[in-house]
Amino acid sequence: MSEESRIRRILMIEDFAEDRLIYKRYLKRKLDGQVVYRECESGAEGLAAFLEFQPDLVLLDYSLPDMDGIHVLARLGGALGRPEVPVVMLTGMGNEAIAVQALKNGAMDYLVKDNITSTALHRTVINAVEKHRLVAELDHHRQALERSNAELETRNADLRASKLELEREVAERRQVQQTLLESEKHFRKMAEFSASVIHNLGNLITNISTSVFQMRGFLESSQLKNFLMANRLIDDHLDDFERFVAVHPKGKLLPRYLLNVGDQLRREQERFGDEIEALGDRVNMMRDIIEQQQTRAKQALKSNPLDLNGMLDKVLDLHGELIENHEIEVFRHYFATRPIFANRAKSLQILINLIKNAIEAMADNLGRPRHLTLRTSDEPEGLVLLQVTDNGCGIAPDHLTNLFAYGFSTKKEGHGFGLPYCALAMKEMGGEIRAHSDGMNMGTTFSLRFRAGRRPS
């Protein structure tokens, strides 16, 4: 469609009837005789006619009896910041300041009345319509780019969330690995518990593999290809932008900018693909770890003197990223001087469970700090005390009695395995574990008493 064929309605806002007559005569020489003209003598009349007449082009005089043309432009622009149709400003003198102001407020071009000829008016009108069309197309591409960026941000956020979830799953599997490696043949209850954990882990790994496959399909169905095709189309038609480039210095930069951004989006998609591959590799590693554990789950391991304070530091290091991500402040009050006499793998599993539970209990501490306190001390009767305290969600009084029961959990997605295992393992090693909370949102303290071991000679 030619630019002339796009013009069917012209609105002239000009207070001199003689000038309006000249403009119409000039335009009728060049334009289709089917063009309809609407004439207005003031800014207010022109604004009202603009809404009712819905013109394809506006010829706007700068000097009007009730307001100047700049104010009319601003009113025409509305929420868009520029008029929805091309506007040509007409001035009585060659004032560059007025011209610049008019262009800034959305006019496509301007003409000095003394210099208006039939050819000049026709050329300016056609150029204005073409420039307005090009600006609209660029706006369309810009909006498409913004939508693509928003989609990529959403996908990136989903990938980060998936990564954090997988890291949490890895930490849990490390815990199970330690448990299964140290399971003893004569501990039948723990053997049953370990088997149920393995079953649940297998289901979780299947779900993770499915999620990875879905993420890959989501990326493959991306609109990125369509966006790159649009960029190539712009590149193929760069020669059509000559007039726009001659008027607006940014014109020659925008199409090339879109091409560059398209290349960046393509590279980002490739990086997302690499991330998905890495997640799949981690799932395979977890599967290998579980298979190895199943072959070793029945091995009997002995108790030995262990450095409780040092083990706590190792577990904190294991959860270092979670602690940092949740902005948790850790307080270490290590007063125990004697080692504990316990099974190393079981003890590590207990510590991992309790510290992980404390971190999760503080996840909803919105607007208040998160504090994790670890305190060790020597106790009478050959015992060593460990207290793990958080200032998180707390425990309801009626839940405290069931806290160590198999299958009971206060978490929405909990399986009720962790704390029962801790209680059984502590009992097997000759110790005990207790929980105390003053109620909901009052935090929780777990107190563990281990048998003390002899210091190495």
UniProtKB/TrEMBL annotation:
<dbReference type="InterPro" id="IPR011006">
    <property type="entry name" value="CheY-like_superfamily"/>
</dbReference>
<dbReference type="InterPro" id="IPR036890">
    <property type="entry name" value="HATPase_C_sf"/>
</dbReference>
<dbReference type="InterPro" id="IPR005467">
    <property type="entry name" value="His_kinase_dom"/>
</dbReference>
<feature type="coiled-coil region">
    <location>
        <begin position="131"/>
        <end position="169"/>
    </location>
</feature>
<keyword id="KW-0175">Coiled coil</keyword>
<dbReference type="InterPro" id="IPR003594">
    <property type="entry name" value="HATPase_dom"/>
</dbReference>
<feature type="modified residue" description="4-aspartylphosphate">
    <location>
        <position position="61"/>
    </location>
</feature>
<feature type="domain" description="Histidine kinase">
    <location>
        <begin position="281"/>
        <end position="454"/>
    </location>
</feature>
<protein>
    <recommendedName>
        <fullName>histidine kinase</fullName>
        <ecNumber>2.7.13.3</ecNumber>
    </recommendedName>
</protein>
<dbReference type="InterPro" id="IPR004358">
    <property type="entry name" value="Sig_transdc_His_kin-like_C"/>
</dbReference>
<dbReference type="Pfam" id="PF00072">
    <property type="entry name" value="Response_reg"/>
</dbReference>
<dbReference type="GO" id="GO:0000155">
    <property type="term" value="F:phosphorelay sensor kinase activity"/>
</dbReference>
<dbReference type="Pfam" id="PF02518">
    <property type="entry name" value="HATPase_c"/>
</dbReference>
<feature type="domain" description="Response regulatory">
    <location>
        <begin position="9"/>
        <end position="128"/>
    </location>
</feature>
<dbReference type="InterPro" id="IPR001789">
    <property type="entry name" value="Sig_transdc_resp-reg_receiver"/>
</dbReference>
<keyword id="KW-0597">Phosphoprotein</keyword>
